[in-house]
Amino acid sequence: MVGAGLASHQKSLHDEHNPSQPTLHAHRYDFIVYVELSKTLSALFFSSANPVAQELGYWSVWAGGYLARPIGAVFFGHLGDAYGRRPTLLLSILGMTVPSILVGALPTYAQAGVVAPVLLGLLRLVQGLALGGEVCG
Question: Does residue 111 sit in helix, strand or coil?
Fold first, then answer.
């Protein structure tokens, strides 16, 4: 009986799939990658003098990107109304791509000190804004 219910639930999920929305689950990709690389990125961008502060700093940057999404939705929603969906989507995709590339080019904490996590945080905020525009805007 449970198997039949599960099969009908899975079928209903597949029936509701809308191919016109390819970013349905892809919009979480940058956050998944950021979480998976937590040990590496926290060691590179935050001071290892205090492990608790290192983790708090790392997850604060993650939360900042996540919390910027609703602001991005409002901003890009307004742009979409004013200029159309296509240019707005292209701008939001650019807002995800450029910061992603720049994260790979950032100096580490050993090279730049406190500037490294600040730059990482700013880039994650831009990504959060852009992601809000892709998904909600």
Answer: helix
> Closest Cα to residue 61, out of 131, 127, 130, 136?
127
Tell me the C-alpha distance between 123 and 132, whole Å: 14
Mean pLDDT: which of 5-14, 28-37, 53-62 is highest?
53-62
CA dist 113 and 11 (Å) reads: 52
Residue 68 CA to residue 34 CA, distance in Å, equals 16
Q: Where are the domains of the chain?
A: 23-135
Is 90 exceeded by the pLDDT of residue 9? Answer: no
Q: Return the closest-CA partner of residue 135 out of 102, 96, 84, 83.
A: 96
- Distance, in Å, from the CA atom of 40 to the CA atom of 24, rounded to the nearest integer, reads 28
8 A C-beta contact, residue 48 and residue 108: no
Q: Are 130 and 92 in contact (CB under 8 A)?
A: yes
Is 133 within 8 Å of 91 (Cβ atoms)?
A: yes
CB atoms within 10 A of CB 4: 8
**What's residue 61's pLDDT?**
94
Mean pLDDT in residue range 115-121:
96
